């Protein structure tokens, strides 16, 4: 008799749920599942080779490349989850906004968004605009079908997307973004409402294609006070996450003071950067599963330091109802990938 | 009979202590004293005019310019404190390290410091190396003699100085700095010990010249976890601050989780950025006077928002044993200086 096929992608060959999804549900698991933000990317020579002649946004739009790049770190490191290779501005470009990702700079927007006219010119995302993501996910699920590897979908949150559109590119202080927020809250809210709708459609396409979970990245939310976050950002992130049918992870950098508010946006898992120890985070968002939070810079340290810091993170994570091991931010390009592989081994044996 | 002359610069004409110093001591004061980090700088047209043909480091080394630039915001805004116009790398250059401040980039170091040989090549600072600071402070004290304006001295903390030297310039992740810290703690500690000695000499020169208080800026400390801060940074900052004979303020950005550790470094006042409300900060460092913490970006907002946020900061500051009103980081160059003037008026009438 052939082995029973899993009913859904979220099940493994023996019919049990994948480790990552069990941890998300707060089930008792033998060890924390592990994956790394930006595990697919410049730390891998095979990624740099593949991207040598292909622009970032082009690589996100080609299903064959998305599939291959997403799988590279899974093959190498044996992580428990693949994360869809994409960029937070992909759905914005797909919705017709003129922007590019410039190497060494980041996203650059042709016409910054500052007025209500600019906002009303932003059209909704149609699922067909991102058909390439649907195709890529189906390719990926075929590759992952016989494995226990979960596939996580990916989108940027409204505040961070708005920041790129308002500033015209990356910025240190997000001063123009906050000026719009404080000075023209109607324009701000209209912009974030449109971005929330685009992000939600982008995630719904990924969920329909079969991802096991999604992560909403609000990279720059940590630049806000909790009062401003609650007033100007939380309702829009909530609109993205409310009622999505798969487990949701919500992450930002420098968000120690925002964790309770971010947890209210409706995610099942709250990501924590390395500044807030997981046991402290657990006391700020009681009942939430946590993800994180090894300082990516620790991966440049000698192995005994990496091992000791990883064990500290695992120990602190036990104070939460569930823990997905990850870094506290993305893998740095200069990271030695062999250290990541060894780190996964350590966690698999934890 | 002529009015009684104050015994020291720290007293006002009627013999009472200046408002800022009373707040530092936790005395009951009628309103919070107020000054702004980077109040002397690019937000002021008179500063931009003066600096049009003068490089940053040259302007820090010319006592006439230091005096004038330091006084500009005092004249304009009627703040309760002047802060010595300088830069954190001034004592490093004075001790013979080859570096420059490049407009639009920041400090750039000719030969990054990575080895024990690099560290032992750093010589101590001799007080005569910074005689220009002594001269500038004496000019300033003469100008401020008939006023209630306190004069605050200024230096960068060892971690932040080390970060510039190791990276060779500003950096986003401080990855090379942390790699040295984790990988060669003996080199790291030797470097920070030398930097602590330089910083301490720099502050002692300022104290001998007559400043009322000093602020130690650890701009990048917020990139560290508390465990790393305690292990690799706190002892060196403590060596700078221990036993200095004037009140000490200690500040970094994004240090919500570090406040208890930073408070242990020995300052009288802990500065707080806008991410941590002052009432929350007060509960993390009980018994400490706090400084801060209006988001500098709020100054771009319409006046009712500025006023309401300032009143929130004042109200939250009442939970601390003392509160010095300030921003949560430096004044942004694009700030309208009239808003700062109006903000000081609001606080003077609080």
Automatic annotation (TrEMBL), chains A, B:
Q: Which residues bind substrate?
A: 38-42, 87, 164, 219, 329
| UniProt xrefs under Pfam families | URO-D
Q: Where in the cell is it found?
A: Cytoplasm
Site annotation Transition state stabilizer: residues: 87
**A GO molecular function held by the record:** uroporphyrinogen decarboxylase activity
* Enzyme class, spelled out: lyase
Question: Which EC number(s) are documented for this chain?
Answer: 4.1.1.37
Respond yes or no to whether keyword Lyase is given for this record: yes
Give the catalytic activity: uroporphyrinogen III + 4 H(+) = coproporphyrinogen III + 4 CO2
Keyword Transcription in record: no
Main subcellular location of this protein, as a coarse class: cytoplasm
Segments forming domain Uroporphyrinogen decarboxylase (URO-D): 33-42, 152-168
For biological process, the GO terms are: protoporphyrinogen IX biosynthetic process
Pathway participation:
Porphyrin-containing compound metabolism; protoporphyrin-IX biosynthesis; coproporphyrinogen-III from 5-aminolevulinate: step 4/4
Q: Which UniProt keywords apply?
A: Cytoplasm, Decarboxylase, Lyase, Porphyrin biosynthesis
Outline what the protein does: Catalyzes the decarboxylation of four acetate groups of uroporphyrinogen-III to yield coproporphyrinogen-III.
Q: How does it assemble?
A: Homodimer.
Q: Which NCBIfam families match?
A: hemE (TIGR01464)
PANTHER family recorded for this chain? METHYLTETRAHYDROFOLATE:HOMOCYSTEINE METHYLTRANSFERASE RELATED, UROPORPHYRINOGEN DECARBOXYLASE
- Tell me the HAMAP family matching this sequence: URO_D
In which family does this protein belong, per the annotation? Belongs to the uroporphyrinogen decarboxylase family.
Protein's name in the database: Uroporphyrinogen decarboxylase
The taxonomic lineage of its organism, from the top, reads: Bacteria, Bacillati, Actinomycetota, Actinomycetes, Micromonosporales
